[in-house]
From TrEMBL:
It comes from Amazona collaria. PROSITE patterns: CADHERIN_1, CADHERIN_2. This is Cadherin domain-containing protein. The keyword Repeat applies. The lineage of its organism: Eukaryota, Metazoa, Chordata, Craniata, Vertebrata. Residues 38-118, 119-223, 224-325, 326-428, 429-534 form the Cadherin domain.
């Protein structure tokens, strides 16, 4: 209050609470402070203000000079909705005077800072499946600490699709049945409920609800099938099981009982509940002559509701005979090349009963993949190709079973022998054969042996060997038909045919026969059966006197058709001198020589006497392989000859006669004198130039 004008000061106070997200929030309060003038002047008129009481928790502060009242700590509407403050006004005089009669009331206004809270979570409830629509199932409730619209709640169901059987009262939170329930379809529902206040902005929370639907007996038992049938032999023992009927009840914990309602003539049958089904058993002996069929009506009941089914029991005549095979063991043969589906044999059995008791079904006791048996006819047929080479026989256990009650049977054994056919060609043990033989071996010498096998049996697997249709080396070889030994038929000559490429055959004796060829290579080995051959038997040589040592006076060549060491040629030179009067002089050693390996005759020094000079060294060669050539050496003048021999005589024409052999160790053979067959030619006209 202004002390001069008497005006009243009005304050607007804002209150802020300590709420959590999305807070904090605030409110405002109006504070009026009235101060009476003490009519003093100066310092006596200066008024100071202070809060005396009511400022619990220190929420407010007042300015001492101006009297302005402020909120200094957050306010909470839900804790304190109103504050009453006592204000002291004190002047500055001495002694100071004060007044504490001033009261300030601060009202805290609510803001929406509290979300709804459900009183219990999760909510659980049960409801019978047959309750009417609108039935109240459970009351879900939430509270909100705020006030006014901030605490007014609206309830909704979350994420419920079409056909959801529950609804909620938006204001009260009561959940009610909105559509018919069926426990057999859905026995439990779980969903969410949301509570939202009407503040601005609104706040919400949710809770889970589980509603369990309880069963009521609203379903009748139902048989799994309406009609049953059974066949029972008249000699069936009392207590024998006929069949089991079965019914189901969709209700929970239902107990089904069974009884025979009608058709149980002479009370032949009884029924008991076992494992949820009704087991029909024979209570009294049957008589095929009195009743051949029973039509039973069976009732299944859960105590309130029931269902019925019909059971037809056909009584059959007693199966007094079993099937009988004509033999306990059968043996048949089948060729291995028969196609798949071939009927091997038809096995049959007989039964002296009639009707179903005599109708026989055939089956194989063991699964043999190569064969099957027709159940009605007993025909055994092939399912796979047979192979004698893999398996030669099969033993099948075949059972003939009648269709009586109880079934009777007989078993026989069928042995199937697979007959071999010539379906395999002989096979050689090698892809090709190689051998060798010396050319000088006698006829019928063994060279090599070929060998083949045949997977077939008997004549189909019996093999003989032949060159027929192949190559026998133009008749130089034969092959033994049983052993496969290849032999020479005549003497061979390597120099004519060094290598034979033969083709032999292994042929079985099946019909038709199968044959397999093989290549045979025979190498003919050399023996020293050919002597060297000079290019001519006689040579004329003219040599000038005073020819230098080492002069080549002739080239003497020879060839040998053998090979290897047998074809290496070795030569010697044997020289003798004879005059016209048949006087013989032997040249001294070294007068005439042979250059090694060249086949050339040359002067080795002054002619003095006869000599032997080796040309090529090597192994000894049989004497039968020797060949000799005669060489005629003509001297141009007697003076030259006399100079060589130191003999005085008339001028004559002499011939050097000497032999060239192809072996070192050969005894020289004497050469007979020869007269000149023609006049001496000029020494410069040599027929064999060096």
């Amino acid at each position: 209050m202004d002390p001069v004008t008497g005006a009243i000061t009005t304050l607007l106070v804002e209150a802020t609470d300590q709420g959590q997200e999305p807070g904090p929030r605030s409110a405002t309060a109006t504070v009026r402070i009235a101060v009476e003038d003490d009519n003093d002047n100066g310092s006596n008129a200066l008024v100071h203000y202070s809060i005396v009481s009511g400022n619990t928790r220190g929420h407010f502060y007042i300015d001492a000079q101006t009297g302005a009242l402020d909120v200094v700590t957050p306010l909470d509407y839900e804790v304190s909705k109103e504050f009453t403050l006592r204000i002291r006004a004190q002047d500055g005089g001495r002694p100071p005077l004060s007044n504490i009669s001033g009261l300030v009331t601060v009202q805290v206004l609510d803001v929406n800072d509290n979300a709804p809270i459900f009183v219990s979570t999760p909510f659980q409830a049960t409801v019978l499946e047959n309750v009417p629509l609108g039935y109240s199932v459970i009351h879900v409730q939430a509270i909100d600490a705020d006030s006014g619209d901030n605490s007014r709640l609206v309830y909704t169901l979350l994420e419920t699709g079409a056909g959801f059987p529950f609804a909620i009262n938006n204001s009260t939170g009561w959940i009610v049945v909105a559509s018919e329930l069926d426990r057999e379809a859905v026995d439990s529902y779980s969903f969410e409920v949301e509570a939202q206040d009407q503040g601005n902005p609104p706040m919400a929370s949710s809770a889970s609800v589980t509603v369990t639907v309880l069963d009521v007996n609203d379903n009748s038992p139902e048989f799994t099938q309406r009609e049953y049938s059974a066949r029972l032999n008249e000699d069936a023992a009392v207590g024998s099981s006929v069949l089991t009927v079965s019914a189901v009840d969709r209700d929970a914990n239902s107990v089904i009982t069974y009884q025979i309602s009608s058709g149980n003539t002479r009370n032949r049958f009884s029924i008991t509940s076992q494992s949820g089904g009704g087991l029909i058993s024979l209570a009294l002996p049957l008589d095929y002559k009195l009743e051949r069929q029973y039509l039973l009506t069976i009732t299944a009941s859960d105590g309130t509701r029931h269902d019925t089914a019909h059971v037809v029991v056909n009584v059959t005549d007693a199966n007094t005979h079993r099937p009988v095979f004509q033999s306990s063991h059968y043996t048949v043969n089948v060729n291995e090349d028969r196609p798949v589906g071939t009927t091997v044999v038809v096995i049959s059995a007989t039964d002296e009963d009639t009707g179903e008791n005599a109708r026989i079904t055939y089956l194989m006791e063991d699964s043999i993949p190569q064969f099957r048996i027709a159940a009605d006819t007993g025909a055994v047929t092939t399912l796979m190709e047979l192979d004698y080479e893999d398996q030669v026989s099969y033993t099948l256990a075949i059972t003939a079973r009648d269709n009586g009650i109880p079934q009777k049977s007989d078993t026989t054994y069928l042995e199937i022998l697979v007959s071999d056919v010539n379906d395999n060609a002989p096979q050689f043990l090698r892809d090709s054969y190689q051998g060798s033989v010396y050319e000088d071996v006698p006829a019928f010498t063994s060279v090599l042996q070929v060998s083949a096998t045949d997977r077939d049996s008997g004549l189909n697997g019996r093999i003989f060997y032949t060159f027929q249709g192949g190559d026998d080396g133009d008749g130089d070889f034969i092959i033994e038909s049983t052993s496969g030994i290849v032999r020479t038929l005549r003497r061979l000559d390597r120099e004519n045919v060094p290598l034979y490429l033969l083709r032999a055959f292994a042929v079985d004796k099946g019909v038709p026969a199968r044959r397999t060829p093989v290549d045979v290579q025979v190498t003919v080995l050399d023996v020293n059966d050919n002597p060297p051959v000079f290019e001519r038997d006689e040579f004329d040589i003219f040599v000038e006197e005073n020819s230098p040592i080492g002069l080549v006076v002739a080239r003497i060549t020879a060839t040998d058709p053998d090979e290897g060491t047998n074809a290496q040629i070795m030569a010697t030179v044997h020289v003798r001198l004879r005059d016209a009067n048949d006087n013989s002089r032997v040249l001294s050693a070294g007068s005439v020589g042979c250059r090694q390996g060249a086949g050339r005759v040359l002067g080795a020094g002054r002619v003095q006497a006869g000599c032997w000079v080796p040309c090529v060294t090597g192994s000894t060669v049989p004497s039968s392989a020797l060949r000799t050539a005669v060489v005629l050496l003509a001297l141009p003048s007697l003076a030259w000859l006399l100079a060589l021999l130191s003999v005085n005589s008339d001028a004559l024409l002499f011939h050097y006669l000497f032999a060239i052999n192809n072996c070192l160790q050969v005894t020289p053979q004497p050469l007979h004198p020869q007269s000149p067959r023609r006049a001496p030619r000029s020494p410069r006209a040599l027929p064999y130039p060096p």
